[in-house]
Structures
1.
Amino acid sequence: MAGASVLFLGTGDAFCNGGRLHTCFHIAADGYQALIDCGATTIAVMRHLQMDIAAIDAILVSHLHGDHFGGIPFLLMDACFNAPRTKLLTIVGPSGTRLRVMDTLGCLYPGAPAKVESLLLRFIEFKDRESLAVGPLGVLPVPVVHPSGSTAYGLRVSIGGRVVGYSGDTAWTPALGEIARDADLFICECTGYDGPVPSHLHYTELRANLPDLKARRTILTHLGAKTLAHLDSLQVEVAEDGQTITL
């Protein structure tokens, strides 16, 4: 029977408020493993959970902020010096993803980009609303509202006969309805609580617009300090670091 699993490796904001780790979701079906975003804390939590980092087949990057892609340089260093990979790693993201990853890697570890070139590695760039196949995954990137040096995307990912929608980081936009509609799981950022946060969603706004999203299940992530202070009053499910959902 078809199905997929989603493991929340990080559900925090850029500042790790509440001790939550940077954004990263592990999705798997039929032996294929991918990460949706790969924040700077990703390698630490994967080690803690004794996951096989070299088994990851693909990384889907919603946008080019460090709490969403900053873990990639460390995963590449791990492949070079610690746990060699034996299969292709595909990294898919906005225009400029390869340059941003390699520039960051070079800043952190001078000379490392030349070593990474020996890995089985490919980069693919999203094109607005153009579906692409990444192994067995179907990925639809939908532009959202979040300045990050390149287009920021919400993602609609088909895996194992299921659909996972992900808002990415964004201010409110009608595009969220397109991403969430009929998804088996919609993972939605909720940085703020009851007032505007630049280029992010807040809970009262999201709660009012939930009827327009029409996902089968919605779960909140990327929680800021004020949202965390009101967890007991939230009427939408909240993801937790380490939580697994089977679809």
Note: The first strand starts at residue 5 and ends at 10.
2.
Amino acid sequence: MPIHLKHSPGDLRRAFRRRIGEGVLLRAPGVFDPMSAKLVESAGFEVLYVSGGGISRSMGFPDVGLVTMTEVIERVRLITGGVSIPSIVDVDTGYGNAINLIRTVQCFEDAGASAIHIEDQVTPKKCGHYTGKSLISTEEMVLKIKAALNARRDPNLIVIARTDARAVEGLDAAIERAHAYIDVGADMLFFEAPESIEEMRAVSAAIDAPLLINMFGGGKTPSVPLNDLESIGFRIVIFPSHLQRASIKAMQGALEILKRDDLADGEDTQLMVTFNERDAIVNLDGMKDLEKRYLHVPQAEEEA
């Protein structure tokens, strides 16, 4: 059954783990702030993806490992505190070696993540669809996965191992790495940037574990219908950049209108939500109810 719980992070993690085991393909749109997360939940999605690249670009940086763990943690706390669906969180390389990763896992668990994914790039990392990536050894990544698994205090926190080896070492070597990561106990595999549907099928046939796939236009991976992804064997598909790229386009359009037209406020209901619709997304009415229950409002102000 779909996950829509107003419960603790532990409840969400247990429900999410069960849902993955049901064998359906879950869609996880990428978010980068609490507003985008609320939109994903209100649209009816069961899970969201906190994109490290999305957060980095929202801060004005490319996705090349410039954002710190502290900066990402603050976003994650705000996101998980504002929604009631599970969050898959991109923690890059764990922000350092295996010892750094121990603290990373515990901090993101405390911040409310339902799942985290850790990749086998060197630190600092790059976007999985950029060129010029470098990898740590399989042996080092295996130790990092062991450290992550032992560091979690909630056994239902899902640890996803991501490999970027396809672009660096080739398909066969990447599958070998994937086997090593699953054998050591990773809960799920994120095979980044397969270059054809045939490669996707090869990964699914070779790996006996739940699989996550990354889908977005303009990357190295071709777009594949969701029914095909499910039949191939993927259990989660993330769309890390859709919302951010759409919002950029909308803001560019709004700015062009402000420059071009002789308008008092520049409001265009075909282009943007209304003032009241925006407040509805952040539950202004709920906040007003709390004010009535707990705040003393002067009589004159109440009457006004």
Note: The chain has a mean pLDDT of 90.
